[in-house]
Design a protein that fits this description.
By secondary structure, the chain is an alpha/beta fold. The chain folds into two domains: 184 residues, Rossmann fold, CATH 3.40.50.2000; 170 residues, 3-Layer(aba) Sandwich (Rossmann fold). It has 15 helices and 13 strands. The strands form two sheets. Strands 3-2-1-4-5-6-7 form a seven-stranded parallel β-sheet, sandwiched between helices. α2 crosses α3, α7 crosses α9 and α11 packs across α14.
Protein backbone atom coordinates (compact mmCIF):
# COMPACT_ATOMS: atom_id res chain seq x y z
CA UNK A 1 0.00 0.00 0.00
CA UNK A 2 1.22 3.49 -0.87
CA UNK A 3 0.01 6.57 1.01
CA UNK A 4 0.61 10.20 0.08
CA UNK A 5 0.27 12.71 2.92
CA UNK A 6 -0.12 16.38 2.04
CA UNK A 7 0.89 19.31 4.25
CA UNK A 8 0.00 22.82 3.11
CA UNK A 9 3.33 24.26 4.32
CA UNK A 10 6.41 22.23 5.18
CA UNK A 11 8.08 25.40 6.48
CA UNK A 12 5.57 25.87 9.29
CA UNK A 13 4.83 24.13 12.57
CA UNK A 14 1.72 22.68 10.91
CA UNK A 15 3.98 20.20 9.10
CA UNK A 16 4.60 18.30 12.35
CA UNK A 17 1.08 16.82 12.44
CA UNK A 18 1.59 15.58 8.87
CA UNK A 19 4.97 14.15 9.84
CA UNK A 20 3.47 12.35 12.82
CA UNK A 21 0.74 10.80 10.65
CA UNK A 22 3.47 9.67 8.26
CA UNK A 23 5.35 7.94 11.08
CA UNK A 24 2.14 6.17 12.09
CA UNK A 25 1.32 5.12 8.52
CA UNK A 26 4.80 3.71 8.02
CA UNK A 27 3.82 0.83 10.30
CA UNK A 28 1.76 -0.64 7.46
CA UNK A 29 2.46 1.26 4.23
CA UNK A 30 4.98 2.99 2.01
CA UNK A 31 4.59 6.70 2.75
CA UNK A 32 5.43 9.95 0.99
CA UNK A 33 4.95 13.37 2.60
CA UNK A 34 4.60 16.29 0.20
CA UNK A 35 3.94 20.01 0.44
CA UNK A 36 5.13 23.52 -0.39
CA UNK A 37 8.32 24.80 1.24
CA UNK A 38 9.43 28.41 1.63
CA UNK A 39 12.86 29.73 0.65
CA UNK A 40 13.88 29.44 4.32
CA UNK A 41 13.63 25.66 4.06
CA UNK A 42 11.83 23.02 6.08
CA UNK A 43 10.46 23.80 9.54
CA UNK A 44 13.52 23.52 11.84
CA UNK A 45 12.04 20.69 13.92
CA UNK A 46 11.00 18.68 10.84
CA UNK A 47 13.59 16.00 10.16
CA UNK A 48 14.90 15.72 6.62
CA UNK A 49 14.05 12.38 5.02
CA UNK A 50 14.12 10.92 1.53
CA UNK A 51 10.35 10.33 1.71
CA UNK A 52 9.63 14.06 2.16
CA UNK A 53 9.22 15.95 -1.13
CA UNK A 54 8.47 19.62 -1.71
CA UNK A 55 7.44 22.22 -4.26
CA UNK A 56 8.12 25.98 -3.99
CA UNK A 57 5.86 27.96 -1.65
CA UNK A 58 4.93 31.19 -3.41
CA UNK A 59 1.98 33.44 -4.18
CA UNK A 60 -0.43 33.30 -7.07
CA UNK A 61 -0.10 33.30 -10.00
CA UNK A 62 3.22 31.42 -9.51
CA UNK A 63 1.65 29.05 -7.01
CA UNK A 64 -0.54 27.64 -9.80
CA UNK A 65 2.51 25.75 -11.04
CA UNK A 66 3.29 24.44 -7.55
CA UNK A 67 -0.34 23.39 -7.12
CA UNK A 68 -0.27 21.34 -10.32
CA UNK A 69 3.00 19.71 -9.22
CA UNK A 70 1.45 18.75 -5.88
CA UNK A 71 -1.53 17.13 -7.58
CA UNK A 72 0.77 15.18 -9.91
CA UNK A 73 2.86 13.98 -6.93
CA UNK A 74 -0.23 12.34 -5.36
CA UNK A 75 0.63 8.82 -6.50
CA UNK A 76 -0.48 7.01 -3.34
CA UNK A 77 -3.36 4.53 -3.23
CA UNK A 78 -4.81 6.76 -0.49
CA UNK A 79 -4.36 10.52 -0.02
CA UNK A 80 -4.33 12.09 3.46
CA UNK A 81 -4.65 15.88 3.46
CA UNK A 82 -3.77 17.67 6.69
CA UNK A 83 -5.95 20.79 7.17
CA UNK A 84 -8.56 22.19 4.75
CA UNK A 85 -5.93 24.21 2.92
CA UNK A 86 -5.43 24.72 -0.80
CA UNK A 87 -1.95 23.14 -0.76
CA UNK A 88 -3.20 20.01 1.00
CA UNK A 89 -6.94 19.23 0.74
CA UNK A 90 -7.38 21.27 -2.46
CA UNK A 91 -4.53 19.50 -4.24
CA UNK A 92 -5.73 16.10 -2.99
CA UNK A 93 -9.26 16.66 -4.31
CA UNK A 94 -7.95 17.67 -7.73
CA UNK A 95 -5.66 14.63 -7.84
CA UNK A 96 -8.53 12.34 -6.85
CA UNK A 97 -10.67 13.73 -9.65
CA UNK A 98 -7.99 12.84 -12.19
CA UNK A 99 -7.02 9.48 -10.71
CA UNK A 100 -9.90 8.19 -8.57
CA UNK A 101 -8.66 7.32 -5.09
CA UNK A 102 -9.93 7.95 -1.56
CA UNK A 103 -9.10 11.22 0.21
CA UNK A 104 -8.93 11.44 3.99
CA UNK A 105 -9.08 14.92 5.52
CA UNK A 106 -7.26 15.35 8.82
CA UNK A 107 -8.23 18.26 11.09
CA UNK A 108 -6.06 19.29 14.03
CA UNK A 109 -7.44 22.75 14.82
CA UNK A 110 -9.85 25.44 13.70
CA UNK A 111 -8.26 27.32 10.85
CA UNK A 112 -8.66 30.92 9.75
CA UNK A 113 -12.07 30.19 8.26
CA UNK A 114 -13.47 30.47 11.77
CA UNK A 115 -11.87 33.82 12.58
CA UNK A 116 -14.43 36.52 13.49
CA UNK A 117 -15.60 38.73 10.65
CA UNK A 118 -14.04 41.71 12.44
CA UNK A 119 -10.64 40.04 12.20
CA UNK A 120 -11.02 39.50 8.47
CA UNK A 121 -11.88 43.19 8.08
CA UNK A 122 -9.04 44.44 10.31
CA UNK A 123 -6.47 42.17 8.64
CA UNK A 124 -7.04 42.36 4.88
CA UNK A 125 -4.07 40.05 4.26
CA UNK A 126 -6.08 37.17 5.72
CA UNK A 127 -8.36 37.21 2.68
CA UNK A 128 -5.70 38.09 0.10
CA UNK A 129 -6.35 35.70 -2.79
CA UNK A 130 -2.70 35.87 -3.84
CA UNK A 131 -1.93 33.81 -0.72
CA UNK A 132 -2.52 30.05 -1.03
CA UNK A 133 -3.36 30.08 2.71
CA UNK A 134 -5.98 32.82 2.25
CA UNK A 135 -8.88 32.53 4.67
CA UNK A 136 -11.18 32.55 1.65
CA UNK A 137 -9.74 29.28 0.33
CA UNK A 138 -9.71 27.78 3.82
CA UNK A 139 -13.34 28.77 4.35
CA UNK A 140 -14.46 27.18 1.08
CA UNK A 141 -12.50 23.98 1.70
CA UNK A 142 -13.77 23.74 5.29
CA UNK A 143 -17.26 23.69 3.88
CA UNK A 144 -16.21 21.00 1.40
CA UNK A 145 -15.33 18.43 4.06
CA UNK A 146 -18.08 16.20 2.66
CA UNK A 147 -15.90 15.63 -0.42
CA UNK A 148 -13.52 13.55 1.70
CA UNK A 149 -14.20 9.84 2.01
CA UNK A 150 -13.24 10.01 5.71
CA UNK A 151 -12.26 12.55 8.35
CA UNK A 152 -9.77 12.17 11.17
CA UNK A 153 -9.41 14.65 14.03
CA UNK A 154 -6.96 15.27 16.86
CA UNK A 155 -9.43 16.24 19.60
CA UNK A 156 -12.93 15.36 20.80
CA UNK A 157 -14.02 19.00 20.29
CA UNK A 158 -13.15 18.71 16.59
CA UNK A 159 -14.90 15.36 16.48
CA UNK A 160 -18.09 16.92 17.86
CA UNK A 161 -17.98 19.61 15.19
CA UNK A 162 -16.84 17.63 12.14
CA UNK A 163 -17.46 14.00 13.03
CA UNK A 164 -14.88 11.48 11.95
CA UNK A 165 -12.41 9.33 13.85
CA UNK A 166 -10.33 10.57 16.78
CA UNK A 167 -6.70 10.08 15.82
CA UNK A 168 -4.43 11.03 18.70
CA UNK A 169 -1.20 12.91 18.07
CA UNK A 170 0.72 10.09 19.72
CA UNK A 171 4.48 9.94 20.15
CA UNK A 172 7.47 8.22 18.58
CA UNK A 173 8.39 6.44 21.81
CA UNK A 174 11.43 4.86 20.19
CA UNK A 175 12.95 8.33 19.96
CA UNK A 176 11.31 9.84 23.04
CA UNK A 177 12.88 7.40 25.47
CA UNK A 178 14.43 8.74 28.72
CA UNK A 179 16.76 5.75 28.99
CA UNK A 180 18.59 6.99 25.89
CA UNK A 181 19.44 10.40 27.40
CA UNK A 182 22.15 11.41 29.89
CA UNK A 183 20.14 14.01 31.82
CA UNK A 184 23.09 15.74 33.47
CA UNK A 185 24.94 16.01 30.17
CA UNK A 186 21.78 17.45 28.60
CA UNK A 187 21.47 20.04 31.37
CA UNK A 188 25.06 21.14 30.76
CA UNK A 189 24.41 21.27 27.01
CA UNK A 190 21.45 23.62 27.40
CA UNK A 191 22.89 25.59 30.33
CA UNK A 192 20.18 24.58 32.82
CA UNK A 193 21.63 25.24 36.28
CA UNK A 194 18.76 25.89 38.71
CA UNK A 195 15.10 24.86 38.75
CA UNK A 196 14.09 24.88 35.10
CA UNK A 197 10.55 24.94 33.75
CA UNK A 198 10.43 24.15 30.03
CA UNK A 199 7.87 25.21 27.44
CA UNK A 200 8.14 22.98 24.36
CA UNK A 201 6.54 24.11 21.12
CA UNK A 202 5.84 27.34 19.28
CA UNK A 203 5.23 30.20 21.78
CA UNK A 204 2.01 31.55 20.25
CA UNK A 205 -0.23 33.94 22.20
CA UNK A 206 -3.01 31.40 22.90
CA UNK A 207 -0.51 29.00 24.46
CA UNK A 208 -0.29 30.98 27.70
CA UNK A 209 3.27 32.27 27.57
CA UNK A 210 2.63 35.44 29.56
CA UNK A 211 0.81 33.73 32.46
CA UNK A 212 3.55 31.09 32.51
CA UNK A 213 6.33 33.68 32.60
CA UNK A 214 4.55 35.51 35.44
CA UNK A 215 4.09 32.27 37.36
CA UNK A 216 7.75 31.28 37.02
CA UNK A 217 8.78 34.76 38.22
CA UNK A 218 7.04 33.99 41.53
CA UNK A 219 9.35 31.01 42.19
CA UNK A 220 12.74 32.06 43.60
CA UNK A 221 15.63 30.95 41.42
CA UNK A 222 13.46 29.32 38.76
CA UNK A 223 13.96 29.94 35.06
CA UNK A 224 11.65 29.45 32.10
CA UNK A 225 13.32 27.84 29.09
CA UNK A 226 11.53 28.24 25.75
CA UNK A 227 12.57 26.70 22.45
CA UNK A 228 11.96 29.49 19.97
CA UNK A 229 13.21 31.38 16.96
CA UNK A 230 15.25 34.52 17.63
CA UNK A 231 12.37 36.89 16.80
CA UNK A 232 9.92 35.40 19.32
CA UNK A 233 11.26 37.40 22.31
CA UNK A 234 12.88 40.30 20.47
CA UNK A 235 10.01 42.68 21.25
CA UNK A 236 7.80 43.44 24.23
CA UNK A 237 8.54 43.37 27.94
CA UNK A 238 9.99 39.85 28.12
CA UNK A 239 13.14 41.19 29.79
CA UNK A 240 11.06 41.53 32.98
CA UNK A 241 10.69 37.77 33.22
CA UNK A 242 13.17 34.92 33.87
CA UNK A 243 12.97 33.63 30.29
CA UNK A 244 15.88 31.80 28.66
CA UNK A 245 15.30 31.26 24.92
CA UNK A 246 16.66 28.02 23.52
CA UNK A 247 17.32 27.78 19.76
CA UNK A 248 14.86 25.76 17.71
CA UNK A 249 16.06 22.18 17.61
CA UNK A 250 15.77 19.35 15.11
CA UNK A 251 13.13 16.77 16.00
CA UNK A 252 15.76 14.22 17.03
CA UNK A 253 17.22 16.62 19.64
CA UNK A 254 13.95 17.43 21.41
CA UNK A 255 14.07 14.42 23.78
CA UNK A 256 17.36 15.71 25.25
CA UNK A 257 15.84 19.14 25.82
CA UNK A 258 12.80 17.65 27.58
CA UNK A 259 14.94 15.36 29.72
CA UNK A 260 17.05 18.33 30.88
CA UNK A 261 14.05 20.14 32.41
CA UNK A 262 12.67 19.81 35.94
CA UNK A 263 9.07 20.56 34.95
CA UNK A 264 7.27 20.65 31.60
CA UNK A 265 4.60 23.34 31.25
CA UNK A 266 1.59 23.19 28.91
CA UNK A 267 -0.23 26.44 29.85
CA UNK A 268 -2.97 26.78 27.21
CA UNK A 269 -5.35 29.74 27.58
CA UNK A 270 -9.14 29.55 27.59
CA UNK A 271 -9.68 30.44 23.91
CA UNK A 272 -11.67 28.84 21.13
CA UNK A 273 -8.42 27.77 19.48
CA UNK A 274 -7.22 26.01 22.63
CA UNK A 275 -10.52 24.19 23.11
CA UNK A 276 -10.13 22.53 19.71
CA UNK A 277 -6.37 21.96 19.66
CA UNK A 278 -4.65 19.03 21.34
CA UNK A 279 -0.96 19.88 21.92
CA UNK A 280 1.40 17.39 20.33
CA UNK A 281 3.99 18.17 22.99
CA UNK A 282 1.74 16.66 25.68
CA UNK A 283 2.36 13.18 24.29
CA UNK A 284 6.11 13.78 23.91
CA UNK A 285 6.35 15.06 27.48
CA UNK A 286 4.48 12.01 28.76
CA UNK A 287 6.86 9.69 26.93
CA UNK A 288 9.93 11.28 28.49
CA UNK A 289 8.72 10.76 32.06
CA UNK A 290 9.33 14.35 33.22
CA UNK A 291 6.79 16.02 35.60
CA UNK A 292 4.05 17.97 33.80
CA UNK A 293 1.92 20.97 34.78
CA UNK A 294 -0.86 21.71 32.29
CA UNK A 295 -4.02 23.73 31.77
CA UNK A 296 -7.28 21.83 32.16
CA UNK A 297 -8.55 22.44 28.64
CA UNK A 298 -9.36 20.44 25.50
CA UNK A 299 -8.60 16.73 26.09
CA UNK A 300 -5.68 17.39 28.47
CA UNK A 301 -7.67 16.51 31.63
CA UNK A 302 -8.54 13.09 30.23
CA UNK A 303 -5.09 12.45 28.80
CA UNK A 304 -3.20 13.53 31.93
CA UNK A 305 -5.65 12.43 34.62
CA UNK A 306 -3.64 11.28 37.64
CA UNK A 307 -0.26 11.75 35.97
CA UNK A 308 0.16 15.55 35.92
CA UNK A 309 -0.89 18.63 37.88
CA UNK A 310 -3.76 20.42 36.16
CA UNK A 311 -4.71 24.09 36.68
CA UNK A 312 -7.43 26.42 35.34
CA UNK A 313 -6.38 28.12 32.06
CA UNK A 314 -4.74 31.52 32.56
CA UNK A 315 -4.72 31.31 36.39
CA UNK A 316 -1.26 32.65 37.28
CA UNK A 317 -1.57 31.92 41.01
CA UNK A 318 -2.71 28.34 40.44
CA UNK A 319 0.00 27.80 37.83
CA UNK A 320 2.71 29.15 40.14
CA UNK A 321 1.41 26.97 42.98
CA UNK A 322 1.43 23.83 40.85
CA UNK A 323 4.93 24.54 39.53
CA UNK A 324 6.20 25.20 43.05
CA UNK A 325 4.54 22.03 44.37
CA UNK A 326 6.07 19.98 41.57
CA UNK A 327 9.55 21.25 42.41
CA UNK A 328 9.11 20.89 46.18
CA UNK A 329 7.61 17.38 46.09
CA UNK A 330 10.05 15.52 43.81
CA UNK A 331 9.05 12.01 44.87
CA UNK A 332 5.34 12.50 44.18
CA UNK A 333 6.16 14.36 40.97
CA UNK A 334 8.39 11.54 39.71
CA UNK A 335 5.64 9.02 40.46
CA UNK A 336 3.15 10.96 38.34
CA UNK A 337 5.72 11.33 35.57
CA UNK A 338 6.35 7.58 35.55
CA UNK A 339 2.61 6.98 35.32
CA UNK A 340 2.43 9.38 32.37
CA UNK A 341 5.15 7.48 30.51
CA UNK A 342 3.47 4.14 31.21
CA UNK A 343 0.15 5.49 29.87
CA UNK A 344 1.86 6.77 26.72
CA UNK A 345 3.47 3.38 26.09
CA UNK A 346 0.16 1.60 26.70
CA UNK A 347 -2.02 3.73 24.41
CA UNK A 348 -0.28 6.47 22.43
CA UNK A 349 2.71 5.07 20.53
CA UNK A 350 2.99 5.44 16.77
CA UNK A 351 1.93 1.81 16.48
CA UNK A 352 -1.32 2.63 18.32
CA UNK A 353 -1.97 5.65 16.09
CA UNK A 354 -1.10 3.58 13.03
CA UNK A 355 -3.59 0.87 14.00
CA UNK A 356 -6.41 3.44 14.21
CA UNK A 357 -5.38 5.01 10.91
CA UNK A 358 -5.33 1.59 9.26
CA UNK A 359 -8.92 1.00 10.42
CA UNK A 360 -9.99 4.27 8.76
CA UNK A 361 -8.23 3.31 5.52
CA UNK A 362 -9.79 -0.16 5.56
CA UNK A 363 -13.23 1.49 5.54
CA UNK A 364 -12.53 3.76 2.56
CA UNK A 365 -10.35 1.29 0.65
CA UNK A 366 -11.33 -2.24 1.71
CA UNK A 367 -8.99 -4.96 0.52
CA UNK A 368 -6.06 -2.59 -0.06
CA UNK A 369 -2.76 -4.17 0.98
Amino acid sequence: MKITILSHNLSSNASMRAHRLALAAQHFAEVKLIGPVESSGLWPALPAADWIHSVPECRFPKFASSFVQLAEMCDGDVLIAVKPQLGSFGAALVAAERWPKPVILDLDDLDTAFAPREEWESKPAMADLHRPASAVFVSLLTRATGAAQAITVSSTALQRRFGGTLLHQGCDTRLFDPTRVDREAARREFGFKGPTILFVGTPRWHKGMKPLAKAVAEIPGARLAVASRDKEFAEGDWSRYPVDPVPMLPYTDVPRLIAAADVLAIPQLDTEVSHFQMPMKAYDCMAMGVPIVASAISDLPQLLDGCARLVPPGDVAALAGALRETLEQPEASRAMAAKARARCLESYTMAHVGATLREVINKVAPGLK
